[in-house]
Design brief:
By secondary structure, the chain is an alpha/beta fold. It has 12 helices and 18 strands.
Length: 454
Amino acid sequence: MNSFKSPMTAVGTAAASGAGGASAHPAAGAAADGAPGASSLVVGVKKSVTPVTLRTAALAGLLATALTGCGLLGGSGDYADGAMTAGGGGRSFTVAAAGDILIHPQLIDQAARDAKAEGRSGYDFDKIMAGVKPVISKADLGICHMEPVLGKPAGPFQSYPDFLVPPQIATTIKNIGYDTCSTSSNHSLDHGPEGVYRTLDTLDKAGLKHTGSARNKAEADKPLIMDVKGVKVAQLSYAFGFNGRELPQDKPWLANLNDFDKIAAAETAARKAGAEVVILSIHWGREHQPNASKPQLKLARRLAEKTGINLVIGHHAHVVQPFEKVDGTWIAYGLGNQLARHDVPTGLTEEGAIGWFEFAEKGGKWDVEARFVPTFTDIPPDPEATQDGAAAGIEIKPVRDHRLVDVAEALRNDSNLLPEQRSRYRVAFERTVGTVMNRGAAKDGLRPLQELPG
C-alpha cells in the first residue's frame, strides 16, 4: 500500500492506493480517450424548484478578486430566493451532480449502527448522507455516480479490489433526492454480469434511473431520456476501463468503455430520439490527483469542439478537480467523492463538490451557468489514535460518526460543531474553491452556490 503525504499541506501529492478503490490494473490510473448507444427510454423526473490554501500567490489573488465579486467573503447567509433557480423567462431547469459513491467497510459499519439506533436491523445510510439532501432535493435533476456493485441485503460485502456493497445505499440515494445514476466505472465488472444485473435491478427497485451499464443489448441501445420540467434531457455514462477485466465477447453491451466515436454516436442517437440536452458522465483521469491529466484535457476539448454535448461531469479521481468552460461547454473534470471512507484518508478524499448547473433556453440554444457546493465527510478517528492522545494527557473530543455535510450550511448552523470541525470545514471549503477555480473558471462565472459565513 502506498503512503501519502500530509493532507493539509500537499494538495496534489497523494498517490493511488488500494484502499481507495483504485484499479489494480497498471493502466487504471490513466485516462483513456473515449465512450460505447434506437428507440428512446423517456422517463419523468418529479421535482419542482423552490428557493432555498491556495497553492500560489497568483491564484490567491485571482480567487480574492473572484470571491469578493460574488460575495463569498461577506453578505447574506442563506440560499437566497432564486439562487437555486434557473431564470430568464424561457424554459429552464437545474442539475445537481455529485462525485463518487464508493462504500467502504467503515461506512457499512456506520450504517449498521445507525439502523440499530433506530431499532432496526440491517443498514441505513440516510443519516450519513442527510447533510446534502437540502441541495440535491431542490434540483430539478439529481445525478449520482454509483461506482461499486450492489450486493444482497444481508451480504456478504467486499471492499477493494472487488467492491460489493449494501443495496440499501440505493434507497438512501433516492431518499435524498437523486433521480438517476451513472453506472459505468472501473468497478462495473467487479462481479461479472450477475453483479451488473443485480445493481441495475436494485436501482430500478429504488426508483432510480441509470445509464452506463445494461442487462441486454436492447437496454444498452436505448438512450436514457428524462423529462425535466418539460425538457427532454439525456444522460450518457462511460468509463476508461474495468481494472483489467474485459467485456465478455458475447456481452459487449454490458458496460460502456470510453471511446470518442462511441460517445459521439451515443449523443447523435439521443438527439434523434428527441433529446434536447445531453449530459455526459465520464469515469476518467488519475486517482488522487487534483489536476486534470493531459488525456482528460485532450478528450474534454475534443468533446466540446466536436460534439453537441451540453455538460461533462467527471469521476474517478476521488479528489476534487477543476471546472473549466471549454469552447462554450462546462467540464467538471472531477467532483471528488460524494461518499467514501478510504482506508488511508488523505484529507482530500474526504472533500467533494456538488456541481450545480442552471440551464436556460436562450434563442433556441441552452445557456449553462455553473456553481458548486463544497462537501466534507466527517470521519471518526481510529481508536488507536484516540488512545494514544489520552495516554499523552491530551483531551480529545473527536467526531463520533461518519457524516456527509454541505460545508457552508454546516458552518452557518455551527452551534453543535467542535472547534476542530469548524477549522477543518473552512480548510475544505477554501481548498475546494482553489481547486475548482485553478483553470480560470472564475472568468466564466463559476462561484459557490452558497457563501461561506464570515
